[in-house]
């Protein structure tokens, strides 16, 4: 059976499928080209800035831990004075970690609601939120901190941004899955009041899931 003998609606469907196939092919070629360019550029930069081979650096691998223990042994009980001296910096580090984690939690809740397809009907914004969460959690905090340390200089801000970004990605993905698995039928009842709508919101599923995941982490740790 030729294409001309098909009904008009089937011909239209076939044309749409062919258009989608061409679009997917174009996106695939663009993606492959981008990977090749990034790979070649990364290898070139790594080769240009290479500090030496692995065999040359393996001899210095244990220098830092040896120096650390030797210095601690030579200091002896005087380390209490060093602890009191650097206690403000230690407290500042703990405060920075707590603040960046809390900031990441707040943004994770917001992005998780946008990434939940049972709450947001616009598929474009759902896809944008999900891809943003994927990108944020795909890089470890250390990698993100090194990038911002190179861009912003030596300060506490790169560490704060690194913990914040990774926390948003990790918690946002978890929260979005929890919200999507929540039962949204009570919110769709006709004649529901505003206070009942807030009480039945999927947002209340997040604390229960967070407690469950924390308990599982303590059990398996």
Q: Profile the largest sheet.
A: none
Number of helices in the DSSP assignment: 10
Instruction: Quote the average pLDDT.
Output: 78
The percentage helix is over 70%
Strand content bin: under 5%
In angstroms, what is the radius of gyration? Answer: 27 Å
Task: State the total count of DSSP E strands.
Answer: 0
Could you give the order of the helices and strands?
Answer: HHHHHHHHHH
Report how far the terminal alpha carbons are from each other.
Answer: 64 Å
Global morphology: flat
Q: Would you tell me the structural class of the helices and strands? A: mainly alpha
Low-pLDDT sequence parts: 214-221
Describe what is shown at a glance.
The chain is mainly α.
Key structural traits:
single chain, 221 residues, mainly alpha, 10 helices, 76% helix, 0% strand, disordered C terminus
